[in-house]
Amino acid sequence: MSELVEFFLRSRNFILFVLLEVVCFYFIINTSNYWSATYFNTANRYAAQVLAWSNAANEYASLRQVNADLALENQRLNARLTQLLQSKPAAPAEYQADSAFADRFKFTVAKVVNNTTQFANNYITIDKGTDDGIRPGMGVISPTGVVGKVKVCNRHFSVITSILHSEFLVSSKLTKADEIGSAKWDGVDPHLMKLDAISRYKSVAKGDSVVTSEFNSTFPPGVLVGRVRTVGVQPNMTFHDITLDLATNFSNLSFVYVVENSLKAEQEQLEKQIETDK
Length: 278
Prior knowledge:
278 residues, MreC, cell shape, 3 domains, transmembrane helix, alpha+beta, Cell/Rod_MreC_2, MreC_beta-barrel_core, 12 strands
């Protein structure tokens, strides 16, 4: 306490000067319309700037929640879109799928907690596991395209075999040519993928869309795999040499959707039974 008193005593002249300045400033503002208006406008301008900075900081801090909310909304829209597409395919017009088939795909949103792109065989870790209904073999997509397939799970986490894996194949279809092939990563560029088994006699152009085909039980049909980047033909080869720009950007992958096909086990069991009976 004595030190505080000594400080005020040592600084009494300066403190008196500051108090007199404040009093003078107060009288100037209150006795002059010009200075009163100037003070009011200046104070409002700085207050507005501080408020803008504060709002910007709050918006930035809430981006994580905004992204999570958007992921949940995309999950709902994905489920609805898939249901509509499966209930009424493009052809034939008289075909109508039953409700169990149309509703077979369910989506669970998950956050990416680890992701590699620099290896020949890459994996992704997400924050959902068996407690959330995740099981090995389920497909995984992003808001923009195919991501991979669940490999192993524990209660709270799952590891996904990325599409950027030397042994990962995706049954894919060129939308314009209506031709089925296999998309596979060549282990070089994480933004590019090869599309194999497309006949050289089919018309393929740069920019054509490639989506998941109907001939797999892991992914819903119509999920974007990529777009044609280059088209070539090797001498004496039957197929095009096609390179795709991947639809999913794995360098900034934040949220994914795990796809459950409720009829997958039933379908695979029946197909295995046919193979066994041969």
